[in-house]
Amino acid sequence: MAQVTIDNVRKAYGDVEVLHGVSARIEDGEFVVLVGPSGCGKSTLLRMIAGLETITGGIVRIGDRVVNDITPRERNIAMVFQNYALYPHMTVSDNMTFSLRLKGTSREETARQVKRAAEILGLTNLLDRYPKQLSGGQRQRVAMGRAIVRDPLVFLFDEPLSNLDAKLRVQMRVEIKDLHQRLGTTTIYVTHDQIEAMTMADKIVVMRDGVIEQVGSPLDIYDAPANVFVASFIGSPSMNLLNCHYVGAGNARTEDGIDLPLVASAALQDNQAVVYGVRPEHLTIAATGIPAVVLVVEPTGSETHIFAKVGNQDVTVLVRERMSVAPGDTIYLQPKDNSIYLFDKGTGVRL
Amino acid sequence: MAVVVGSPRMRKLETALIYVALTVLVMVFLFPVLWVLGLSLKTRLQVFASPPLYLWWPTIENYVDVLTRSDFPRAFINTLIVSTSAVLLSLCVGAPAAYAFARFPFKGRSFLFFALLVMRMLPPIAVLVPMYVIFSKLGLATTRLSVVLAYTTFSLPLVVWIMRGYFEDLPVELEESAWIDGATRFTAFTHIILPMARPGFVAASILCLQLAWNDFMFAAVLTNNDTQTLPVMMASFNAGDSGMDWGGLTASGMLVTLPVVIFSFFAQGHLVAGLSSGAVKG
Ligand SMILES: Nc1ncnc2c1ncn2[C@@H]1O[C@H](COP(=O)(O)OP(=O)(O)O)[C@@H](O)[C@H]1O
Ligand SMILES: [Mg+2]
Fold it and tell me: What is the ipTM of this complex?
């Protein structure tokens, strides 16, 4: 096990720079999730840690060792790919022991490791099968088995669950998390799914367009997003963001002239353009408040999502109690105390 | 109106028609082969009977003649050595080259690949004379090696072409996974890539073998009596004072064809499609 440090790392393909100086520190034994929209450079960063991509600039360390010029085979890492990349001409057991055979591990030790991994992952009855005889979830487990027999310094996962159906995804999420708690191996996990990030991570690294937007624990990031991007990316349904300007006296006003309640702030100047953020779950429906016209009501059973318009801007409200609202109704919304986020309109930074 | 296409009787009829059509097609394709087989089983008199004989007692005298000729076993062994060597050499050189074309984006890649194919576009006769001159200068004329090199020149582009396709279709993640597992590029190639590309090897070796086994032109120019191959030997049936020896020619033709047919038949069993299925999602 080891910590991983990424220091001002850059990656360019030809003239196009896709990672613009990224720094992060992954502690020993930590489960870190790199999350961000598709194309933001998560896989590229992970592959640089694995040694599958050259490093254009900056330093990557695994433990105390600078690994910039070290081949993947010498990095003592294990990686689970999005498409699993199982060796199709080998049985499950051979797939898992390929690395051990290359290392020249003794037969008894190999058998012991396979037995252990197979027991952890529930693969004991499948050891003689070939990958094509397995279901998606089983292949996923074999890919993980291949990683854990190695006992590597670091586990790397690149969107390992995105080929599974929704139900299996939730199940595997729990299994991976449980596996990490049992083995305690430093893990870097890439996903575009913020729910996976929130549920699995000790620490989330939010990326966009080749830069890191914010690093923190899931709840820190949820409670204190650094900017508009993080605020809208983390949390589901995502945060409501309303364009408005500060009009003093603890109020902000939308273009349509609708007043949004605020705690008075000395830091704001009159008429300053801001983005008013409030999470759907922090809005309640009351007798008075921000007027909104209901568009669609989506009951999910345990909670109800109400999509509405404040002036010409969209808001989502999440309510747990059952209530009779219908499209076309006007409802009045009250933000809970201390649930308002204000962002600078130009820079997107939280004020 | 009821649609009758799906009724069981119609379907049976359809199947029967398909089989009839296929049988006719196979007969058309196999007719020359059957004709040659027929000739090889006739005596000299029967060969020239007019109108042709369609029913006769087959004789194996032509086969006995051919197999007891002093030069047949030698030519057979020459052909075997030359063809096998050409196939192995083409695969050993071609597969790594194809891998490089498939995986490394080196400068001039597409130009080189095209250049390789140009070799296939040339009519073989165009390179025959220059090759002969070169081999003579190198002291290789009339050796088996010269024929092997000539065949390799023509089968190499074929191997590279076929194997490149196979290698490109194999997911890169399989190799990357092997590297992370501790394999060198070479180990990953031999342990992961080669086993998965087996159908490609089989297809390529069948084609190369046929190219080499059946060649007459290069062997005729580049070999002598000691190193001549079967097709060259067969030509001598045409030469005697007694005119064309049809029986000998067709019997040896059948004997020459047999090993390639047998090889291809067994090799084709390895051409299983979907060997790589299960590697990635699917
Ligand atoms: N081999 C490559 N050549 C050129 N551009 C690439 C290559 N691989 C990735 N990119 C670009 O780098 C960016 C980041 O890609 P990637 O790391 O795969 O994103 P993510 O995993 O976050 O979806 C994308 O814009 C992608 O187009
Ligand atoms: Mg990716």
Answer: 0.86
